[in-house]
């Protein structure tokens, strides 16, 4: 990986204009990695733009540079763009930029920085470290390999990635290196308290009421030993809650000591259904099922999006699991 780190660095130094891309509906890892990198580019005066195909969750607006991530498609018309860096996305479709890349008049150089085992290595350079807790950890290694100083803003951003993907150091991604890097980032001036407030202490009464509704619908599919629940657009309207704020529910299901796998179905505005798998069982790999459904992720946390309505989507997923083995 040291060699790839160096190659990426050379490409960045030579680039005219770099486009930074998180995956759509970005989480703390995608945003933390992107903003840490943005701060680095800012410091070396490298022209760049950050673009996200969807809105960025409101709770992250206190993280430096998040407010400068654009959703304006016209940025793709900038003829100087020659390098595109994608953070935390296993494929270009999940990043939401496959269609933009296809339409560009000239080829751009794609750099893929990630940690998902399902990553399709779609870049010209791929720094995909599957043993990393987070893309932020992968990026920390990139900065180290290239002797790039991590300032307090970059440290805070990287902390957002580590905290998000280890679910506050509780899930299977939590490792010795994730903890060592965390302490290093704090010693470099990373603002852990800010990240805690952004990621953990961000729920209104209505959000927790919504969690209550979703949790009250938990059911177990005995035959496949799967615990599931769902969230509808009507629920979001009733409680005036945006979709992204419900993200923590799927992680919270890791608290269950019942069933091999948990699954949260979420109705999207376009009548598609997003599924989020979680498991804490050593012998279960949910990324394999997610991949069969057109998605991806990690062995212990993976997702997909399929056509609705909810009942139909649930039937499709349950049938697939019945026919395959979870482990
Ligand atoms: P979540 O269920 O919280 O959205 O995602 C769990 C993990 O799976 C995350 O690491 C996320 O990046 C990945 N993931 C979720 N949905 C998809 C998808 O549709 N495609 C890909 N490639 N990865 C996904
Ligand atoms: Mn990640």
UniProtKB/TrEMBL annotation:
- A GO term, aspect molecular function: nucleic acid binding
Q: In this protein, which residues make up the domain named DHHA1? A: 231-319
Pinpoint the DDH domain residues. Answer: 18-161
Q: Which InterPro entries match?
A: DDH_dom, DHH_sf, DHHA1_dom, Oligoribo/pAp-PDE_c-di-AMP_PDE
- Origin: domain of life: Bacteria
Put simply, this protein is called: DDH domain-containing protein
Species name for this entry? Candidatus Magasanikbacteria bacterium RIFCSPHIGHO2_01_FULL_33_34
